[in-house]
Amino acid sequence: MKQSNLSFMKKQFFLSFMALGLLCSFGAKAQIREFTIGYGIMPQSFNQVESINNFAETKFSGSIGPSTTKDFSISGPYRLGFTQYDTKHLTLGADLSYAAIEAKMTYSDATKETVNFNYFTLMANVNYQYTDNPKISVYSGVHFGVSYVNAKNANNGKKGEDYIPAYHLTALGIRYGEKVGVYADFGYGFNGIVNAGILYKL
Fold this sequence. Notes:
elongated, alpha+beta, eight-stranded antiparallel β-barrel, 3 helices, 57% strand
């Protein structure tokens, strides 16, 4: 990524932090606040690494060809979220997540490379609740923000970093519990196709 674009994404990253701070201050009048800890499966970050896009090719090996074989292992995303209930049906929130991906590549000449990727993602979110029930809720929503990516080639020591747009679309989610409970949602993006965990309401 060009330096000008990298600087722009860095500014966007810090602006996201400021926006989340304002979100918390605006939530001072919110009647309910909720904290969540969760884990996701198959996030969008894995799809990006699996495709071995330009980020990997230009910064790490440059020798990827049609006969290359690839193996991947992923941990995460581990997600920490905050939600405030502004109305009976509308919630605003933010989430911070981390995912680690290891890509092992074998080339046609039998040489091998291992690249380790780390994704640190910050997103704001808006959810709409279809139900008005203190114990169980069904919702959909959208998340948007930025992800900081760093990676290192374990064979030659090459390092790289990038800032990329982050997003997540929650097609359907369910929360259960009045004070302490569980949640699970299904969607597409940086939180994973399936994301589930525990919640605590203040």
